[in-house]
Fold these 2 entries.
Entry 1:
Amino acid sequence: QLQLQESGPGLVKPSETLTLTCTVSGGFLSASRNYWGWIRQPPGRGLEWLGAITNSGNTYYNRFLNGRVTVSSETSDTQFTLTMVSVTAADTAIYYCARLWSYSDYADVWGQGTLVTVST
Amino acid sequence: QSVLTQPPSVSAAPGHSVTISCSGSASNIGSKFISWYQKLPGTAPKLIIFEDNKRPAGIPDRFSGSKSATSATLGITGLQTGDEADYYCGTWAVSLGHGVFGGGTKLTVL
């Protein structure tokens, strides 16, 4: 059974870089028809799609984040990473990684989420 | 402001039915599949409808999805107190080149 698990710092200082890793168990990033994404939920607000990477390495990003986000999977076939630069308090949120399906664009498997707080 | 528009809240009595709307445009709902998610406090979103009207295994048939032109609807019948949650629609926005969610609808089962 496919499972995803986010890991990373729970606290980041303003202007610094946030790096989160999603570890996939029971599957591989190279699986056909799947791509892998990051979604967040700030406190008291709705879901926000951040970025994703396909099994061939193509990436897609939320343009409203103004190029601050990068999704990569350079290190293994079971991990992918979210990097967000120049964080502010507005980036405080629960961050989720998820498996998505190409052409249908739905996320059927989610990690449990990790809370990231941006504060001094 | 979300690309997809949902009502902030809906409510109904136990046993009754409710619908939640999701309004978009030709470059998102009008040309791509819609999916729906149930979000309970402290838990990850749960997929309840995909490809407009399909239910994943384990999702009861009390949940249904439909789509017409640039709008989609989630229907829930036989409401239970356990259905109280936030519900989100999601799709791909062709003009933006990335995925998008609606602002979410809080369902209260009175």
Note: The mean pLDDT of chain A is 95.
Entry 2:
Amino acid sequence: ETGVTQSPTHLIKTRGQQVTLRCSSQSGHNTVSWYQQALGQGPQFIFQYYREEENGRGNFPPRFSGLQFPNYSSELNVNALELDDSALYLCASSLAGTESLFFGSGTQLSVL
Amino acid sequence: AQSVTQLGSHVSVSEGALVLLRCNYSSSVPPYLFWYVQYPNQGLQLLLKYTSAATLVKGINGFEAEFKKSETSFHLTKPSAHMSDAAEYFCAVSEGTGGFKTIFGAGTRLFVKA
């Protein structure tokens, strides 16, 4: 059984740039959620995708957007990067009808 | 709106002592409740979950938690701490299946002293 994988593991960008983070879901999972975890804080819910549609969103601006593909992999796109976007971005997959999230190891994004 | 409050950002115990990490939640519907653990430079791993079955839930690594509706609490305990338990622990609440909009607390860092 393949777990949740995220790429890249680390990324450095400058303010105003755009970034794309990628996630492969655990085998058999059809739902993917993205979280932002700032240093010393809990994960903050960005959004969730199910059947390639956004299925719920947290308090993040529209410059945070996502995609889910037919194979259930996913992308998180962030436009016009700000310094406060520096954080660990976590992807979690799950199976609709169950309750638990399965997390990847995250992408550490630094915005300079 | 659902929310989670973890009491104490840091907890320190001696090896072999009782571990108690506190979590209170608010939810407008019967919630699903979780505890996750995060080791340095890693993602989160599920320890245990409450899904309206037994109120006392047993998880991995000897951890357990009790759902108390009257107190809106879901505290995590372990009878005897081990050095390997040192990590960050997150309580979380979800109002739907599929991990729908799972909301996390701020976390409690557990230190275990030899």
Note: The first strand of chain A starts at residue 5 and ends at 7.
